[in-house]
């Protein structure tokens, strides 16, 4: 919401005296976009990874005054960008008081506003609406009707004594109620073609027929839509005249780099420290929850590998929501494990990656010729992600002595039921681990951070085929390969 109050202007006469100038909504957005671009500011806050791809196209579309359709798979911030467009509107806009369709005080279009203006002239009352309410949105569903979008005769108004031919009997739909604002349709191809024709009629020809009589509503609306490429080409289609209405079609994409996906995860994930404090309200010290950066990168890398995997249906996409949900599940499992162990510091470990199964399987469509292979595909993706991050994070020269120590008889036991203190003690039992562990923790020698790094190093060496691993239930034993 805005930070300032509405202007103290109550009539059209006062509005004229204030110097306010009426302008079309696209011109309003264009002017505000020019101001932001000139100041070097981003159009939106919180949309990452589009600075050099999507945003230049969107800036061009806004400067050109185009209606826009965003084309992309699920979880690519299409809806976020659409809703953020309201930030490019003026904070407050005057309307004729009581108007259902935000009539311009200087250029009213509804019968209600025209009658009011004819009666009161420049003393007609003016209301102010905030930019946040100048946005209308509809998810295209099979039950969407013309009445939802354009309007319908209100039987209550007819019962009050008005004739059906009276425009005042109309109950306006979402599009007219978004007059002088932004109207968005999500998943546009799913909208029935006959409804799309109605949309074209109100947005292009301006002549709308409701229950057999015609009204003329020269609406001022910016139309924005989203569509999934699969739906766009197969499950539904946009009729050619409506497609022609959009001046720009902008293709969105998933984060191109792992570090961007990680940054988005940190931005979007629900902070579990709040939940931890509530869970530990009976104690003086709440449980703190931390996901080491390298494990966050494992979660992000998992999503990137899934997007490139031949075992995952790429037509449905691998949403960024997968990364966010997995990150939250990883932190939640670390919290649950620490609460059960009575520990006050919860740092995610390799063991907690098993929790990603529940948050992943429903968000990716695994394609396999054999029944029950989903778990195997998931496990392989997780292992590949851990190995990728391990090779990137831990230099080989820091692990030579570790492998030698295990080949000489060192053994390490890990598992979800192994305490933080026991895992951290491995650094003293196998001193060769210290260098690689502190490299991962950035010098942090707290037991929880060390325990997490120890497990990561051991698992990375196993996946690199440099250590053997014997797993039984929740327990694992690492030993040399000789």
Distance separating the two termini: 66 Å
What is the CA-atom radius of gyration, in angstroms?
30 Å
Helix content: 40-55%
CATH architecture of the domain at 12-251: 3-Layer(aba) Sandwich
> Which parts are unreliable, with pLDDT below 50 for 5 consecutive residues or more?
274-278
By CATH, the superfamily of the domain at 12-251 comes out as: P-loop containing nucleotide triphosphate hydrolases
- Taking strands numbered 1, 2, ... along the chain, how are they ordered across the largest sheet? 4-7-10-1-11
Write out key terms for the chains shown:
Rossmann fold; five-stranded parallel beta sheet; 482 residues; 22 helices; alpha/beta; single chain; three-stranded antiparallel beta sheet
Can you tell me about this structure?
The chain is 44% helix and 15% strand. The chain is of the alpha/beta class and 482 residues long. The strands form 6 sheets. A 5-stranded parallel β-sheet has the order 4-7-10-1-11. The chain has a 3-stranded antiparallel β-sheet with strand order 14-16-15, with helices on one face. A two-stranded antiparallel ribbon has the order 2-3. The chain has a domain at 12-251: P-loop containing nucleotide triphosphate hydrolases (Rossmann fold, 3-Layer(aba) Sandwich), CATH 3.40.50. The chain contains 22 helices and 16 strands. The radius of gyration is 30 Å and the shape is elongated.
Give the gist of this structure.
It contains 22 helices and 16 strands. It has 482 residues and is an alpha/beta fold. The longest helix has 22 residues, at 320-341.
Outline the secondary-structure elements.
Blueprint: H1 12-18, H2 25-38, H3 54-64, E1 68-71, H4 78-84, E2 92-96, H5 111-120, E3 126-130, E4 135-139, H6 146-149, E5 151-153, H7 155-159, E6 170-172, H8 174-177, E7 181-186, H9 193-205, E8 207-210, E9 213-216, E10 221-227, H10 229-235, H11 240-245, E11 248-251, H12 258-268, H13 272-279, E12 288-290, H14 293-308, H15 320-341, E13 345-347, H16 356-360, H17 374-393, H18 400-407, E14 412-415, H19 420-424, H20 426-429, H21 433-441, H22 447-463, E15 468-472, E16 475-479
Parallel strand pairs: 1-10, 1-11, 4-7, 7-10, 12-13
Antiparallel strand pairs: 2-3, 5-6, 8-9, 14-16, 15-16
């Amino acid at each position: 919401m805005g930070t300032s109050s509405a202007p103290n202007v109550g009539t059209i006469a006062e509005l004229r005296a204030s110097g306010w100038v009426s302008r079309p909504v696209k011109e309003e957005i264009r002017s505000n976009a020019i101001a932001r671009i000139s100041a070097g500011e981003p159009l939106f806050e919180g949309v990452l990874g589009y600075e050099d791809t999507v945003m230049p196209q969107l800036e061009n579309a806004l400067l050109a005054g185009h209606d826009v359709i965003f084309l992309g798979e699920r979880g690519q911030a299409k809806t976020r960008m659409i809703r953020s467009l309201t930030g490019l509107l003026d904070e407050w806009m005057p309307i004729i008081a009581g108007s259902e369709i935000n009539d311009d005080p200087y250029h009213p279009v509804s019968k209600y506003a025209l009658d009011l203006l004819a009666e009161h002239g420049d003393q007609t009352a003016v209301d102010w609406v905030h930019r946040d309410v100048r946005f209308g949105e509809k998810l295209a569903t099979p039950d969407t009707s013309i009445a939802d979008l354009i309007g319908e005769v209100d039987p209550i108004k007819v019962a009050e004594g008005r004739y059906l031919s009276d425009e005042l009997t109309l109950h306006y739909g979402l599009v007219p109620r978004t007059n002088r604002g932004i109207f968005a349709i999500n998943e546009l191809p799913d909208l029935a073609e006959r409804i799309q024709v109605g949309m074209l009629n109100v947005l292009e020809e301006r002549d709308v027929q409701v229950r057999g009589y015609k009204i003329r509503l020269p609406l001022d609306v910016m139309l924005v839509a989203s569509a999934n490429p699969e739906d766009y080409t197969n499950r539904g289609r946009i009729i050619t005249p409506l497609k022609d209405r959009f001046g720009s079609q902008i293709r969105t994409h998933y984060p191109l780099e792992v570090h961007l996906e990680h940054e988005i995860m940190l931005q979007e994930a629900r902070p579990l420290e709040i939940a931890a404090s509530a869970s530990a309200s009976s104690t003086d010290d709440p449980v703190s929850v931390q996901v080491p950066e390298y494990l966050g990168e494992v979660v992000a890398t998992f999503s990137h590998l899934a997007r490139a995997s031949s075992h995952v249906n790429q037509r449905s996409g691998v949403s960024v929501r997968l990364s966010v949900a997995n990150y939250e599940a990883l932190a939640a499992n670390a919290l649950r494990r620490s609460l059960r162990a009575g520990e006050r510091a919860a740092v995610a470990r390799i063991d907690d990656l098993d929790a990603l199964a529940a948050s992943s399987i429903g968000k990716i469509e695994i394609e396999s010729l054999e029944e029950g292979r989903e778990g195997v595909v998931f496990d392989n993706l997780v292992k590949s992600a851990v190995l990728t991050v391990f090779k990137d994070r831990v230099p080989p020269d820091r692990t030579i002595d570790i492998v030698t120590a295990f080949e000489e008889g060192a053994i390490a036991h890990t598992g979800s039921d192994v305490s933080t203190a026991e895992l951290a003690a491995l650094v003293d039992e196998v001193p060769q681990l210290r260098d690689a562990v502190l490299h991962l923790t950035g010098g942090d020698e707290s037991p929880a951070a060390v325990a997490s790094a120890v497990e990561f190093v051991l698992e990375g060496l196993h996946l690199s085929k440099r250590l053997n691993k014997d797993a039984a239930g929740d327990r694992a034993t690492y030993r040399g390969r000789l």
